[in-house]
């Protein structure tokens, strides 16, 4: 074991890896941003009156849920330009990151639409009724009473999905986008594939710290926003 | 002041309201009694457009609306005149007691915040919650919550307040405090339409009792008429069941 | 390229960014490696083209070149029949690669794939899109009676030298260059294993740049440039500097 | 792509990819088999705040959820054999660690991973079951174990079902990373087939289709089962 | 038959039960009254070991256990003799009415299924639910649910049944049906310890009323003593508050 394992590789690689978190964050951040927006539209379709829109939104969710991210990434990365080709658009010069962001936006939106739908539906209908009964318009009632409460319910799941995107973003390396996982791969390649375990441990440490930080952040956020909500105790 | 005419409402294939008329004059306290499922809640909700009736008219001073086809504007107009106190109070969980009361004033009525806060505080004072302005619903007892719900309705200074079993979700001991608040409001001349099982309240405060069953008004009249001398067999049976045998028990 | 008129054509050269020393993205973020450096020299000889180097994985490189995302890909690629249907192989190869087996010292006597196969040894998995996989696969097809146990796997989880030394597998296919830098070199990460594992070459193989099917013209231009470089011994210099050995010396013995 | 899709290859490879389904399912089932009870027990330790175990479960969940699964695969795949073999040498156990089929590593990784997910699923599901249910069971003379088996678990399971379904679907998808351990599953089979003629695009379409079919079938099965389990609930969505 | 001696119980730093003694004889129907938070529920839960008391003894025929240190076996033994009816009935949601009743018999007591089913059916018949054997709790009205809860307790044929406000979660109309069932059971001679706010029940059925406040027994005695002539000021105040002003209202 000692022959192969050299902990110094862990500590030396961490500072090399950290700058590449920027790319990880950029991809995750934009995907979350756009994904939330698209997810919102899907949610609206799911709880709206149009049966057709609901079917489409549900179908979309099922398909995306059932597709491994790497497969989706390849379908987007090669599929979009191929489609573009047909209609005479050259999409080959678009930056790789765009395809990655599109992929994770599509995926995040599917997850988000479920998170938001269930959060929305967990808010008692009486809250809305009480709001309109004191003279608020429908949109005021949603904006001021229903959404703020649904937001708190959605927060923990939102946090989970965010962690998932951060991790899945690592697949972007397969199409040449270098984020923190990509950098780890390059370091390993730079060592001629030696000491990969140590580099991956370094990566695991970074991810772990990151996810704990995000978890804590979301707990805080939840606390701040859940004023007035009964502190639920777990059994 | 408010006249409801021939209101019909079905859920799916079952007709819940089969043509109900209600007339309420200014200052009236009308109590609606009736067995579970008779359509009392549905009636109240239709009046406030929380459910859309299938047929019926509401005449409210110079406003005369069709309950089925009312426009958004009409609905808004009517809702401005009517306040609703829910069985389980439905306080806004994300707002303090005071914010609960002022929300409708500031956002719905566009009253300046300072003024709204003053109105809100007065309303809370009236229901004995001067020390709970900043408490969230989860920090209040059931009785206190229901009192905030009443204050929220009162603060809107509506022409009429609808109460849907405002005490039935409360512990027996808390019922008293809410009933007392309601009595005080009634004494001030507020027009009220109250669904309740509290016979004491009906007797003491109401000037009219309506007994509903199976989606129609079976009998209506002054409380002593209904309680002491119900004409309809259904009313007699119901009262017998609701009033405990020992309602007359002396202490 | 140093041309100055507007006819300059921009081309994208994809390279496998993680296969040092053939091609890789160095710590400073620059593309380098034998294949890349040759392409840089080619660029200098072709004023009508301007090269842009795009680092990626070999999965992406293959699909990307085929689709036209990239005009050329270099990844120490071997020639295979199937590949000629998807890519243009130019006339001139780009370099030479010594492919061999990594073995434990005690198995030094295994010199060829057939020795390896008859010994019943296990082989480290090879990524399915790696031409090494095809080479072994072809050997197996030609020698149905004496097959090497071939398994597809993923490059980045397989550290061949370590696996062999651990005993996880009996042998692995490796290119000489990486082995040199890993084990033989004084500062190699596995220099401590220098006495425990050996590298036995079983073939020197030509490596090729892969051109997109529409790039015949470009491929022809490349041919001329490379031919000149070979004559000037520039490729031999690069071979020595990246692989520690001028493989062009054994060119005559190369079969594929 | 320039020449359009190779439809023959598309069809042939579809069946090749399909032949990877059993192994993907096998791993999924084994992982669930271990992870379900393990996740449940660890969830109990978290709910009841059992001193050491509850901390352990917490750290465990945070690590597994916090790091990409491919890294976990790598760590297990490269370090477990090393540790084992040094243990074996130490205790003179004459067994070759490397004869072990990689599927065992897949079992380990995916069981670990799924357990962490299920701990959280069960924790939230159990907290939705009213404490009164346990008390009522005790008051009619059931032991704790009986109460859990007959009253609490059946109710918690219904709540947990949708999330278990999600976890299962994710698990099936994650087995596609098994290629890193040379597992002959869907993705690897399709990619090896693609390698022959470099039909990667077709292969990915096939992989997509196979997972889509497999996962929607699993989803459907779960929905049916959920319906059956929740027969006591007023309305099933 | 059951004697509880000097039971103490704290939650955190607040002492909820400060030394309570209760004696119940065979066939007794004892009603406990008291304001909210006085510790009534806690007392019942300690007796059934749903909470662990900090101190106290329970003497049950020839069993004499320390409520704090009782062994698992002793707890099991006591629970076999005591049944509990919860305020919100706590029916097993995943079991039918009949299964709810037989669960404790088959699994807890190891009675053969056929026999248990027979006992269960009889118990359900007794509370008027012969037609609801196979209904799930969610398919039953509140009053029916509570009756299943009572049947579940009765079927165990316990020495004593503890009721914790069995009607307070019910609609006023449903209260009657449950009280009637309880009266019938009392008439059959079942020993009962009942926490309730139903004064009528206390007066008609109880042979002993205990008034608790602040974690101690303030006063106890026959119903007419307590209701008509409460000695302690606290008792008087409480009764005044709980009994509606118009408790005496004649119909
Ligand atoms: N949204 C709905 N969909 C279908 N049926 C409904 C709906 N709301 C009410 N009902 C049915 O309409 C009938 C009348 O209900 P309603 O709530 O008006 O009765 P109620 O007189 O208020 O009874 P309670 O005293 O129990 O509150 C009931 O049978 C109920 O099941
Ligand atoms: N698990 C607990 N943790 C902390 N405090 C508790 C707990 N259970 C009860 N209490 C407190 O103990 C006191 C007595 O509660 P208990 O439920 O016994 O009162 P009660 O007499 O049954 O009241 P009610 O009539 O409202 O049911 C209350 O102040 C309550 O807040
Ligand atoms: Mg109602
Ligand atoms: Mg209590």
What does this structure look like?
The complex is a heteropentamer, with 1 copy of chain A (235 residues), 2 copies of chain B (251 residues), 1 copy of chain C (256 residues) and 1 copy of chain D (237 residues). Chain A is mainly α and 235 residues long. Chain A has helices spanning 8-17, 21-47, 51-65, 69-86, 96-122, 125-133, 138-168, 180-190, 196-225. Chain A has a single domain (8-234), classed as MetI-like (MetI-like fold), CATH 1.10.3720.10. Chain B is of the alpha/beta class. Chain B has helices at 40-47, 72-81, 97-108, 113-126, 142-155, 172-187, 199-205, 223-228, 233-242; strands spanning 2-11, 14-24, 29-33, 55-60, 63-66, 82-85, 160-164, 191-195, 208-213, 216-221. In chain B, helix 3 packs parallel to helix 5 (142-155), helix 4 packs across helix 5 and helix 5 runs parallel beside helix 6. Helices cover 34% and strands 25% of the residues of chain C. In chain C, helix 1 crosses helix 8. The two termini of chain C are 32 Å apart. The longest helix of chain D is centred in the last third of the chain and has 31 residues, at 144-174. Helix content of chain D is 78%, strand content 0%. The model of chain D has no long low-confidence stretch (mean pLDDT 86). Chain D has 2 domains: 1-20 and 184-231; 21-158 and 167-183, MetI-like fold (Orthogonal Bundle), CATH 1.10.3720.10. In chain D, helix 8 packs antiparallel against helix 9. The chains are: A mainly alpha (235), B alpha/beta (251), C alpha/beta (256), D mainly alpha (237). The interface between A and D is large, with 40 and 44 residues. Bound molecules: adenosine-5'-triphosphate (2 copies) and magnesium ion (MG) (2 copies). One adenosine-5'-triphosphate binds at residues 11, 16, 34, 36-42 of chain B. Chain D: This is L-cystine transport system permease protein. Chain D: It is a multi-pass membrane protein. Chain D: The chain crosses the membrane at residues 14-42, 63-83, 103-122, 151-172, 203-225.
């Amino acid at each position: 074991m000692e022959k192969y394992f050299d902990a110094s590789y862990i500590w030396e690689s961490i500072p090399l890896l950290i700058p590449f978190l920027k790319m990880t964050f950029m991809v995750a951040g934009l995907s979350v941003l756009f994904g939330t927006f698209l997810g919102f539209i899907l949610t609206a379709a799911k709880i709206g009156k149009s049966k057709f829109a609901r079917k489409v939104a549900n179908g979309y969710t099922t398909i995306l849920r059932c597709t491994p991210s790497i497969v989706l990434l390849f379908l987007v990365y090669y599929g979009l330009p191929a489609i573009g080709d047909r209609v005479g658009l050259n999409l080959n010069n678009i930056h790789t990151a765009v395809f990655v962001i599109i992929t994770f936006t599509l995926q995040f939106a599917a997850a988000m639409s479920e998170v938001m739908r269930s959060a929305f539906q967990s808010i008692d209908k009486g809250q809305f009724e009480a709001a309109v009964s004191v003279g608020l318009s429908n949109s005021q009632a949603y904006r001021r009473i229903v959404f703020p409460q649904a937001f708190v319910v959605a927060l923990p799941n939102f946090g989970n999905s965010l962690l998932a995107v951060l991790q899945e973003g690592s697949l972007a390396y397969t199409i040449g986008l270098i984020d923190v996982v990509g950098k780890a791969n390059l370091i390993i390649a730079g060592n001629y594939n030696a000491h990969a375990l140590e580099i991956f441990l370094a990566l695991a440490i970074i991810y772990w710290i990151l996810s704990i930080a995000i978890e804590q952040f979301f707990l805080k956020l939840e606390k701040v926003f859940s004023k007035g909500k009964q502190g639920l105790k777990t059994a | 002041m408010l006249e409801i005419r021939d209101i019909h409402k079905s859920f799916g294939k079952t007709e819940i309201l089969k043509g109900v008329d209600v007339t309420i004059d200014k200052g009236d306290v009308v109590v609606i009694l009736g067995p579970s499922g008779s359509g009392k809640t549905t009636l109240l909700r239709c009046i406030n457009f929380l459910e859309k009736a299938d047929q019926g008219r509401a005449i409210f001073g110079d406003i005369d609306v069709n309950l089925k086809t009312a426009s958004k504007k009409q609905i808004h107009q009517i809702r401005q005149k009517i306040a609703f106190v829910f069985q389980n109070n439905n306080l806004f969980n994300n707002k303090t007691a005071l914010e609960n009361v002022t929300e409708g004033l500031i956002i719905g009525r566009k009253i300046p915040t300072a003024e709204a806060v003053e109105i809100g505080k007065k309303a809370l004072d009236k229901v004995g919650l001067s020390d709970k302005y900043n408490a969230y619903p989860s920090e209040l007892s059931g009785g206190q919550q229901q009192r905030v719900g009443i204050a929220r309705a009162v603060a809107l200074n509506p022409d009429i307040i609808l109460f849907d079993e405002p005490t039935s979700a409360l512990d027996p001991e808390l019922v008293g405090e809410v009933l007392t608040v309601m009595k005080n409001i009634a004494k001030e001349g507020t027009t009220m339409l109250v669904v309740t099982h509290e016979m004491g309240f009906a007797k003491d405060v109401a000037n009219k009792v309506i007994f509903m069953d199976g989606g129609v008004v079976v009998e209506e009249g002054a409380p002593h008429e209904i309680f002491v001398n119900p004409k309809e067999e259904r009313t007699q049976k119901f009262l017998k069941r609701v009033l405990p045998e020992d309602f007359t028990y002396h202490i | 390229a140093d041309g100055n008129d507007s006819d300059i054509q921009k081309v994208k050269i994809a390279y496998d960014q993680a296969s040092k020393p053939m091609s890789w993205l160095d710590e400073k973020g620059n593309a380098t490696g034998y294949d890349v450096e040759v392409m840089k020299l080619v660029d200098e000889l072709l004023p009508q083209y301007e090269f842009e180097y795009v680092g990626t994985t070999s999965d992406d490189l293959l699909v990307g070149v085929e689709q036209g995302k990239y005009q050329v890909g270099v990844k120490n690629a071997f020639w295979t029949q199937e590949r000629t249907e998807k890519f243009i192989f130019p006339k001139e190869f780009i370099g030479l690669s010594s492919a061999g087996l990594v073995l434990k010292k005690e198995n030094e006597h295994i010199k060829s794939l057939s020795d390896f196969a008859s010994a019943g040894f296990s082989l480290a998995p090879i990524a399915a899109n790696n031409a090494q996989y095809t080479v072994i696969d072809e050997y197996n097809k030609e020698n149905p009676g004496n097959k090497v146990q071939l398994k597809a796997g993923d490059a980045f989880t397989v550290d061949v030298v370590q696996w062999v030394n651990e005993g996880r597998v009996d042998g692995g296919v490796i290119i000489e260059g990486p082995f040199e830098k890993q084990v033989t070199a004084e500062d190699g990460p596995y220099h401590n294993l220098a006495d425990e594992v050996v590298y036995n070459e079983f073939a020197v193989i030509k490596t090729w740049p892969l051109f997109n099917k529409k790039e015949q013209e470009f491929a022809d231009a490349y041919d001329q440039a490379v031919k000149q470089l070979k004559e000037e011994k520039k490729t031999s210099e690069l071979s020595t500097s990246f692989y520690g050995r001028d493989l062009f010396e054994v060119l005559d013995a190369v079969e594929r | 792509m320039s020449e359009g899709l190779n439809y023959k290859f598309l069809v042939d490879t579809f069946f090749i990819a399909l032949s990877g389904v059993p192994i993907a399912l096998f791993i999924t089932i084994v992982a669930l088999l271990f992870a379900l009870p393990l996740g449940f027990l660890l969830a109990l330790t978290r709910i009841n705040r059992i001193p050491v175990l509850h901390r352990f479960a917490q750290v465990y969940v945070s690590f597994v959820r916090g790091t990409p699964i491919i890294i976990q695969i790598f760590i297990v795949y490269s370090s477990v054999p090393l540790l084992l073999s040094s243990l074996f040498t130490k205790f003179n156990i004459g067994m070759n660690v490397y004869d072990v089929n990689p599927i065992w590593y897949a079992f380990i990784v995916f069981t670990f991973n799924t357990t962490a997910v299920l701990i959280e699923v069960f924790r939230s599901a159990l907290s939705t079951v009213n404490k009164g249910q346990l008390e009522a069971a005790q008051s009619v003379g059931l032991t704790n174990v009986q109460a859990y088996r007959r009253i609490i678990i059946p109710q918690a399971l219904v709540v947990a079902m949708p999330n278990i379904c999600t976890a299962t679907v994710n698990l099936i998808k994650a087995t596609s990373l098994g290629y890193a351990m040379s597992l002959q599953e869907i993705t690897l089979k399709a990619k090896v087939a693609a390698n022959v003629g470099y039909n990667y695009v077709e292969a990915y379409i096939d992989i997509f289709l196979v997972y889509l079919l497999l996962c929607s079938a699993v989803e459907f099965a779960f929905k049916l089962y959920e319906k059956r389990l929740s027969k006591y609930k007023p309305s099933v969505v």
